[in-house]
Design goal:
The protein is an alpha/beta fold. The chain has helices at residues 18-29, 42-54, 68-82, 105-130, 154-173, 192-205, 209-218, 228-239; strands spanning 9-13, 33-38, 58-62, 87-90, 137-141, 180-186, 250-253. It has a single domain (9-189, 227-252), classed as NAD(P)-binding Rossmann-like Domain (Rossmann fold), CATH 3.40.50.720. 47% of the residues lie in helices and 14% in strands. Strands 3-2-1-4-5-6-7 form a 7-stranded parallel beta sheet, sandwiched between helices. Bound molecules: nicotinamide-adenine-dinucleotide (NAD).
């Protein structure tokens, strides 16, 4: 199937590694022009890796999605280099692990800024350009924790529901501008973030890494965690003109982990 992404301009935030990087890479393989950002120097290396494998045009920028000025700079640089913006993928790092008892008010405020307000700011800055695109789309990356709370992750379990509410609302409000707005709810997908979460669980339970992984896998009907590439394939399809009538969908990519009917 032709995803019709050739020449489209795509911004994927928080993309120096993990799900964001894999998604940007897959867009580049499909012929899109890609902008990626993250806080660390690793972003330049990620941009080089993607460009040298795919021969796509890739712009890597250091930026913190919790900072309004950084977001404005990224959107302006995107439009300056590529002349517009067709697809926005809002991603951010995950919040610290912990239970309600472990988590103070400052941590709650920081997590709202990281997960919810970053998406609000990005979408507000990107909207004027998305409205000018022939095939505009927004994808928010949230979590399977919005369907089923994950143990020891109170911040993700709570605040990502705000991003779901935002995504659903925008899928209604922006339809008249032809902008499709969807979310992917990843389940366990092996990235550095997951490695850190497993380390946090080990510190609490005293179990080995192998035992923690086996316990997670046992709850996934497919019997394993996903790979970032499996996530990216779905993300790229959902944002592509090939999915032109898909709007307001909260799509689980979790190996069947969430077993509820809705
Ligand atoms: P990761 O830790 O592997 O990568 C996170 C990326 O975000 C990195 O590139 C990092 O530099 C960047 N980043 C972090 N804070 C940033 C900031 N303030 N500004 C800009 N960039 C920033 O994480 P991942 O596994 O790829 O997960 C991506 C998102 O999906 C996270 O929010 C995570 O919680 C969520 N998620 C992941 C899984 C999973 O199994 N991997 C499951 C559910 C939800």
């Amino acid at each position: 199937m032709d995803l019709r992404l050739s020449g489209k301009v795509v911004l994927v935030t928080a993309a120096s590694k993990g799900l964001g990087k894999a998604t940007a890479w897959q867009f580049a393989r499909e012929g899109a022009k890609v902008v990626i950002c993250a806080r660390s120097e690793l972003i330049n290396q990620a941009a080089q890796e993607i460009a040298s494998e795919t021969h796509a045009e890739v712009l890597g920028l250091r930026a913190d999605v919790t900072q309004q000025a950084d977001i404005e700079r990224v959107i302006n640089a995107t439009v300056e280099k590529f002349g517009g913006l067709d697809i926005l993928v809002t991603n951010a790092g995950g919040p610290p692990a912990g239970t309600f008892a472990d988590t103070d008010l400052g941590m709650w405020e920081a997590a709202v800024n990281l997960m919810l307000l970053s998406a609000v700011r990005l979408i507000k800055c990107a909207l004027p350009y998305l409205k000018q695109s022939a095939n505009p789309a927004i994808l928010t990356i949230t979590s399977n924790s919005t369907k089923q709370p994950v143990q020891n992750l109170v911040l993700s379990n709570s605040i990502r529901l705000g991003v779901i509410g935002l995504t659903k609302t925008l899928s209604q409000e922006l339809g008249s501008d032809r902008i499709r707005v969807n979310s992917i709810l990843p389940g366990w997908t092996y990235t550095q973030r997951v490695d850190e979460l497993i380390n946090a669980r080990m510190a609490k339970t005293g179990q080995t890494k192998a035992a923690e992984i086996a316990q997670i896998n046992a709850n996934i009907p497919l019997g394993r965690m996903g790979t970032p590439e499996e996530f990216a394939n779905v993300a790229v399809f959902l944002c592509s003109p090939a999915a032109s009538f898909v709007n307001g969908v909260m799509l689980q990519v979790d190996g069947g982990l969430h077993s509820g009917t809705f």
